[in-house]
Each structure stands twice: as C-alpha cells, then as structure tokens.
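User: I'm curious whether this sequence folds into something compact or stays loose and floppy. Could you predict its structure so I can see for myself?
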Amino acid sequence: MMFEWLLASGAKGGGGQASKVRCTVRLTEPGGKSAELPLPRVAERSTNSDENALNETRYAFSDEAGGIRVALIVRRSGDCVKGRVEAELANDNVFGRQRTFAPSCAIELQLDAGAAPGRWMAVYQHKDWWTRPAFGTDWKDVPERTQSMLCGDAGRYLQVLPVSGGAVRADVSGDEGGIVIRLTPGGTGMTRMDAVAFVLGVGEDPYAMIERHTAAAAEALGRTGLLRSAKTYPPLLDRLGWCSWDAFYHKVNEEGLLEKADELQRLGVPAGWFMIDDGWSDVRDGKLARFEADPAKFPQGLGHAVGLLKNRFGIRHVGVWHTIAGYWGGIDPQSEEARGYGRFLRSNARGQLLPSPEPGEAFGFWHGWHDWLSRQGVDFVKVDSQSAVSNFWEGSHAVGDAASAAHASLEASVALHFDSALINCMGMAAENVWHRPKSAVSRSSDDFVPQDLRGFAEHALQNAYNSYWHGAFYWGDWDMFWTRHQDARAGALLRAISGGPVYVSDPPGQTDPALLRQLAYRDGSLLRCDRVAVPALDCLLRDPTREALPLKLWNTAGGAGVIALFRIDAEAGGMEASIGPGDVPGLSGERFALHEHGSGKAEIVSRGEALALDLAPGVSAIWTVAPLSDGFAPLGRLDKFAGSHAVLTCAADSRGRMRVRVREGGGPFGFVSDRPPISARVDGEDVEVRSACARFYTVQLPKGNGECCLEIELAAAENP
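Assistant: Here's the prediction. I'll summarize afterward.
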C-alpha cells in the first residue's frame, strides 16, 4: 500500500522509518546569500493512546550545531493522517543580521511512497491565477504547485491534500520514489514556522475522501467555515444572468447595456441579473482614478444606467466588476480617492498603491467604495485578479497573511453592503482558496474565449477536474458562454450540470432564446443541480482529451441523477461509452430509468447495469437517471436540460394515484411506469397521456403561474 509507513504513524509497530522521510531547508544568510541544506534525522518518537485517539509520530531534523530545527508531526486518525511542520532557526546575535528561511520553498519534505501510484490525477497551479489537471502513472511526473493529488488502482484510492491555511503555503510535487511537500513563506525575515502542511489518506470512495480531508484540515486550522457545506449560495445567482465582457470587452457603456437588455426583453429571455464587467471604471494609466464610472461611457452616472436596467427592463439585480487592487495596477496615487482613503492603502516595493495588506486596514477603502456602489443600486460584485495578492506583496509579507488580510477586509465590506453576494475570480492559488472567510462562489477555470475554436475541451477539462478539489470549498463559477457559437449547446450543457451560476455574454443580436429556455424557468430561476459537478469514476483518473473515453460528469437534481457526456478528444470515428446508475454515487433503488434530453432515448436498467453508447466526434449529451419506486419514476420537464429539478415531491395518495408536485407548468413532463396510466389530471383538469416508448410516457403541463400538481391514475397491478 502507498505510504503505508506514514499511515501507520503513531500505531504500534509504526515507527523506525528512518529512510522514508527526508528534509531539506533553504535559508537566506545574513549577507543575503542563499543556502540549501539537507538536514539529518536526529530523532523519531511515537505516541500511542488509543483511548483519546492521540496517535502520532514526531520526525525531528537538525543540523549538527542544533541551530536549524525542523519537526514533522504526523497524527493519525482512521484512514488519514495530518502532517504538521514546526521549524525554528537560532540566531546568536539577536540585534544583528539574522539567518532566515528563504521566501520560496523554505522547507522541503520528501516522502517515500513505498509503492507505485497506479494512475493519478493532480490539480496543479499552471498559472498564477488558475489550476488545471495533469494525469500520469509515475510519481516523478506529478507537477510543481500541485494542490490536490488523487491516485489509485483496483478500487483503492489515496488522496494528498497540501494545506495552506496559515501564514505559509504548501505545495506538492513528485520525485522518483514518492512526493515532495514544499512550504513557502512568501515574505522575508521569517525564523519560525508552525503550519498544518498536509492531509493524506486512503479509502474506496474518492468523493467522500476529499470531503473528509478538507474537513480534517479545516478542523486542524480551527476554521470549519472554510467548507462549502458551511456556506450559503447567493440567492440572486439562482437566476439566469448576462455579462458584458465578451459582448463589449472594454467598450462597455450605458447605451450598449440598454440595447442588450431591450433585446433580451423582446426575445422573452428572463435575465435575472446583469454583470457590468471590466471597462466601466474611471481609470488613468491602468489605475483606479475614481469610484465613479467613466463619464464618457456613462455620461449620467452609473446609478442612471443601473436604474434603467431595473426599472425599464426588469433586471432584478445588477453587479459590477473590480479587482482586488481596485484596478489592475492599483489606485492612482494622485486621485481624490487616494487622498481621502490613504490611511487604508499602502504602497508596495514596486510603488503601486494598493488596499493595505495589514489585518483589517483595507476595510475602510472597500467600505467607502461599496457604500457608494450600493447607493447606485448595485447588488453584488465580481472581484478579479485575486491571486495577484502574493505578487503584490512578495518578499514583504507572508503569503498566507497577505491573502488572509485581503480577503477578510474585502468580504467584510461585501457582507455589509451586498449580503455576501460575491463572485471571486482569478483566485485559484492555494493562498486564496484557503483564506476566504465566508464567500461561497469562485471561478473554477481560465476564461471562456469565444475566438478559440478548440477552447471548449480545455475549458471543460479545467472546470470538471478542478471541481474535485475546489468544490469542497466553493460552488464553481464555470464562466460565461455564447449561445450562438460552435460550442453553444455543449457550453449550455456544461453549465446546466455544473451546480453553479449560469450566465451568457452574447453581443447584441447574438442570443438564441430557445437554448436559454432549456436552462431556466419562465421567471429566470435556474434548474440548478444540487452540488458541484465532478467527473465520474471511470474518467476521474484519466484524461478524456487524450484517451478513448468521454468526459463524464455527474450531479443530482429533484431526487434523480444527472449525467453529462462530452467528447473532447480530437479523434475521428465513434467512441464506445456507457452510462448507468453506478455513475451517480448515493442513488437509492434497484431499478432506474435512463432518459436522454432531446433525443428521447430511454431505457430501464437495474442497479448493476449500464447502457452502452456509441458517441460521435464532438458530441455532448445529458441524461436523467431516475430511481423507480414501486414501479414508477418521474423524469421531470423534458424541455429542460436538468428537467428532474422540476420534481418537488412524488408519492402515492390514499387512492393509489401518483401525485407529483411540479415546480412549473407550461411544457412536456415525462414519467416511467410499469403499470400503464389510465388517466392524468393537472390541478384537477384532464390532460392527455402519450406513450413515448415502452413504459415511458409524457403529458403536456398547461401553462400557469408557479407550481402545479400532476395526478396519474395507473392500471391495477397484475396478480402474480
């Protein structure tokens, strides 16, 4: 078993692993010269106490003089261990120049795996702002800056989660025999470190493992509010949205916003919110010049445009974009805002004026700006460039401390003025993910780029596999898309199953209302799935852009499973695939109805069965997996991608009729029944039942306001 020695830490017989863990430190000497020193092991001590579950091993390292001391404390709990690092440098001259830990990769712990990994999937930071997956079978190929690694073979998995919840940041990479944990302070002058560095564990359910490991890390940090399960999804993002970015880019203005709002209204598209993205602000030389909007683009002010969107066109909520620095280059030091809010701002080593990185100080700046925005009618914000925090304050502040201060000040103001309605963006670096105190939604991929004709494959890949790790902390924002585009339908399906916000960035004259109606109810409310979509087991450790299998995502809605399939490889010819109830963990029942949206393909399978498919190049599809209870299963609204969301309740009444409460009428509703239906009524009115294929039936729900009740009388069961 991989890392058997580590997982046995603290257990009887679990000691004596002198060759399994090695330590290297990187220092900055008093004269500024860098030094790299392997530290010999000097002690290993285990504590066994089954009564209070304190089972741990302490691996101590030191140089010969004892001036450099590092300890790895591994505490075991069930099938996982938590690794904590304590480190200290002794300096005799307390008032002179000091020897300190290097700001980057100060401590490196090499952990011997003891066995091959089988297949692995690692989510790594490939840009300062974004993560993506890598796949392999050799430890040495695990990339630098990995934030989560899952590996396994034959139904047994191991997951490694570096933890960046304190002042320092932890990353994982591979080497010849296992993994390397690196701790990075980010700031200079540090002589002590005490950090929860990683959680590592084994199990048979990789989805439960990531939840368990993030919970263990949050508990060790004393910050259980980090987890998505402790957060509240912003209600306003439960409606269909539109964003100005790909429609106008930096040329956004009041005229363009009103033109688009008028078009959507005429098309009957129920947009619930507008996001005014980059381009609205008044800037000078790449820096924020004023809180107010650019007067050339918004001649009557931002509030005037927001008011027209709401009052003339019925847009319920309007958000605006800004960066975590104010604008990309910070705040103009000659501006009125710099003078009025200077006590909340600080200049970095590059001379950029920024919201202060000290705890609590930047709140005054955000409070001033957000108060003004809220008085213009703004309801929420998208905050970009978040992972630039570590670049802005590199060398002067510990990476975790700077991120923690930035997010705490920002989110305190967002909570005060916008009820915590916030979309985090360009913030997938570990220090950002682990240090936001309350916000619930964060972008989970690089940008949608409509001009990139092969962009969908990478975009889908990033969102899907990033969500395995990122989804334990946030609902993912899978970004905007275009409804008139070669990947429009695939993009819509991807957002439909995502579990997060759904919004488009169509330019004027380029919206397909029929596509959008499959994503939302008449009032703009989304048919949003229950959790964050993630890859199914059969592709979780495999790369669907390079291997002969589709990207398969699963989620749930309305008591049924939802499965989406995407061929994102570049090969021609057909591809064999399958779907079944086993692709959706947690579904109860022994028999299931499978139904494909659009095509109407349908099949009933047992729990252990799967439906074989042949997928053409570039195909995308979404299926409902509905459990049968007493031979009956509602499928939901067949004209919606995640139509099972429309099923509120389903039960037999005292007379044996099936009663289904439906979220909204006005479209076809499907159900499956072993017993043929005799009649059906909707809110007391008779409706026709049509047979789609064996045991699959449809009724047309009359259009009405709000919920409706479908009653179905079934033929009597045949006597055995």
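Summary: The chain has three domains: 4-221, 238-517, 534-714. Residues 534-714 form a domain with the Immunoglobulin-like fold (CATH 2.60.40.1180).
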